[in-house]
């Protein structure tokens, strides 16, 4: 009768990306020479089942032929970015009759997948480019809030709207979620008037600032996300960061920089003749969410009551989850 296999120990996870990882563990030289297969059990941490290792002789997830360690795991799991997982392993020897001699399950190890890498953001960017529509002129960025917000800014912040940490709305793997600070602005206009919409889900007061204060040659423009919330329309998240700023440094290695004068989302065109004004344009068929990474003073613009009467709170994107079934804005590496 074959000797029992020792339990894999010292499980190590390395080279973790948003959709792959490598795993290795310690085995005795004898087991290394005998093992023909590895069994790997992987599950999301939040859905751990205490009975999932009950039948130790039944591979519950992946059966892989034994390979030199570390072993790459990708494609089998549809791993999601920024998600905590639990993993355990068995080693096995396939018997002549087709059954397996297996070790005990190893200890359970937890790890978290990473953000979208630049190549994954490129896939998202390519999809977003196909949904933008024509460019429309605009003249102001605007930010809607409730009166309490602006009262607080004036009384406690010296009139400065300070950057806040980006929430987890949109694509789960966006590198700015929970990591980059900024102040969100909109710039979309209505087709018939060329002005900002009359309604807003974010509050009845609107701060407006001339577009050139936030979008000019001293600003870097980055693409950060493309998503929808179970709706027909889509959102594009852009980042504006003053050149050389902390926000610019953060984005430079994580996001795709866009040409200010030539991109399908948000453009700045410099004056061609003396006395001319710059021209600003936004994409017409997506809703732009523009994150400016520095404080903005209320004195740079004006705060006014909007004329709309309907506060559509259900349309806010705060911590909104991306529709995982949408073929327009999802990419192959997860949500």
TrEMBL record:
Q: Which Gene3D superfamilies match?
A: Immunoglobulins
What keywords are annotated for this sequence in UniProt? Glycoprotein
* A Gene Ontology cellular-component term: cytoplasm
Entry-linked Pfam families:
PHYHIP_C
Q: Which residues form the Phytanoyl-CoA hydroxylase-interacting protein-like C-terminal domain?
A: 112-335
What is the name of this protein?
Answer: Phytanoyl-CoA 2-hydroxylase interacting protein
